[in-house]
Each structure stands twice: as C-alpha cells, then as structure tokens.
Amino acid sequence: MACIMFAFEKSLRVKRSIVNAGLTVIAAGCSLLLGEIAARALYPFLADYNLEMWRYGAELKERLPDPRLPFHHYPNRGGTYYGVEIKTNSFGFRDREYSLTKPPGVYRIVTLGDSMTMGWGVPLDKTYAKVLEQRWNDAGRRIEVINLGIGNYNSVMETALFQKKGLPLQPDMVIVGYYVNDAEPTPVFSRWGRAIRAHTYLGAVIFDIHARIRAFLDPRFDCGAYYQALYRNGAPALESNRKALETLIDLCREKGISLLLVNIPDIRDLANPELQVGGRFLREVAATANAPFLDLWDALQGHPPSDLWVSPSDPHLNALGHALAAAAIFEKTERILSDR
Predict the structure, then answer these.
(1) Beta-sheet pairing, 293-295 with 309-311
(2) Which CATH number fits domain 75-187+220-338: 3.10.180.10, 3.20.20.390, 2.60.40.2470, 3.40.50.1110?
(3) Which distant-in-sequence residues (6+ apart) come within 8 Å of 340 by Cβ?
(4) Per-residue pLDDT averaged across 26-36, rounded?
(5) Alpha-carbon distance 6 to 232, whole Å?
(6) Cβ-contact 294, 325 below 8 angstroms
(7) Of 20, 33, 68, 111, which one's alpha carbon is 20 to 30 angstroms from that of 1?
(8) What is the pLDDT of residues 292-323, one digit of tens each?
(9) pLDDT tier for residue 337 given thresholds of 50, 70 and 90
(10) In which element (H, E) is residue 234 found?
(11) In angstroms, rounded to a whole number, what is the distance separating the alpha carbons of residues 28 and 37?
(12) Taking 70 as the threshold, does the pLDDT of residue 338 lie above it?
C-alpha cells in the first residue's frame, strides 16, 4: 500500500511540474506578446536613429546565400525611415530605373558605398550621387550617376556587389564612397536570427536600451577606441577589406573603367585623428595602387558638425554635407575626364 501511495504522489508531483512548466511557458509567451504589442504601439514615440536603422534593415534587406554578400535590398520596395523615403528600383538600388544597356552617348558612373552613399536621412535627389549627376548635366554632359550604396556594407561587400550587379550596368567610372566603419567584418546572419530580427520590434527596443546603458556605464566605449581597434595592424577584417579594395582597383584597370576612391570623414569631430583613421588607411591604399584619391575632409572644413549631420545622434551627412561632397567630387571627376 505504501508503494502505491508513493507512486501516486510521485505521479502527482510530475503532473504538477508539467503543469507549472506549461503555465510558465504560457506566461512567458503572453509577456513577450504583450511586450511586442506595446513596442509596436509605442514605436512612433520611441523611434530614434538606432531603431529606424534596424527597421530599415528588417524591412528592406533581403538575405542572400553568398558569404561575401550576405544581404541586399529587396527590389521594388520602399518605406519612410527617419522621416525620409527610401525606395528601391527593380535592381534593388535606391535610384530611378536604368536599363542594363547604356544609352548611346551617355557616360555612366556608379557609386559604391554604405548608408552614407545611399543617402540615409536625405531625399534621393539630395544625395551626392544625384547632385553630381545634375551638376554634370547642367554642364552639358550626358552623364548618369547610379547609386549602388546600401546600408551597413563594407569594402568586401561593395566589391562583390560591383562584380555581381555593377559590371552589367556597363559603367565608365566607379566612385567608392569609403566611410571609416567600412573596415568592419562582413556580417553573418543565421536564417532564424534574420527571421527574428525581421519580425520583432521588442527585440530591437531591448537591443537599443542595452546599447544606451552600455554606452552610459562604460566610459571606454567610444567611437575613437572602436575605430582604432578596427584599424590595428593585423586585424583580419581590415586585411580582408584591403584586399577587396585592391581587387576592385585591379578589376577596373582590367576593364578600362576609371576609378575614384573618396574618403567620407566622420564629421562628429574633424580634428580628432582617432575618428579620421579611415581616411589615412584609404589614402595609403590609393597611393600603393596609384589610384585617384579624394578626401572630403578638406571640403567639409569650416562647418560645425551640427551644420552637416542629420541629427545629433546620427552622424550621416545631411543635404548640405552631400552638396559639399558632390561639389568636391565634381571637380575631381572633371580632372579625371579631362585627362582621358
């Protein structure tokens, strides 16, 4: 009889444990669901630079199987991010439609780069690619400038993109808009991780809060130190990105395509050498390969950061910054074309 009672009590404890575990799972699921509903409802009030950049990635970026090119824009999609429309064409670029076949008598330029080149925070017609195109057309030249910039790309991805989608556009010139974080490692996305990122606002809000707390509690966490780590001697990602730039330079020479390497400086402090390490790196790459180089640091001098950035928390160039960049690039490309 005692054995029967013991077995009964054990069975009852097991059932209670299963029920409690099930209730815990249900409670956790309900909490996450309520949190997700709250995050979506409150998003318009919470949205900042980090969250809007996350939403852009979740809604406009398509995962690809290529390890050198893990994502690209979805074609023919759009949305409003940080108050500005970003709309892609059938090629997946933030630009108007173009034919693969270059029209007769047209000189075609493609711009490679990350969100700085894509024009985060500014209307399409205010990006340096479109301002440059307008300046050339006003000067009487039939020149198309096609913007291939995509947010969060590095030099490895930009070179792979050019090989896959840039070359078929039959460009006569390539302009690389290099930003200091283009030396970052190529991201790796799991299928499940990508799916979660694409469908949960709560995760993005938690990540944003964590980043803010980390930056507040850790005084060593600053951009200058981060950039110095990216460009330390022997950094694997730095060498991968250097080789990608060298591959791009060699490829353009092989195809008879003009190339211009353009450094886009970190405008938060133009006088801080830690923030400008990317420009020194690109200048060295250009000098070694004997490739044309332009540093926009000179063009942006004399303007306080608040005149040039999208917002205090967002160091992307605003419309004025893009206009100054386009003016400097126009002068440089004019010299390149006159030498041909």
Answers:
(1) unpaired
(2) 3.40.50.1110
(3) 258
(4) 66
(5) 66
(6) no
(7) 20
(8) 999 999 999 989 999 999 999 899 999 999 99
(9) confident
(10) none
(11) 14
(12) yes
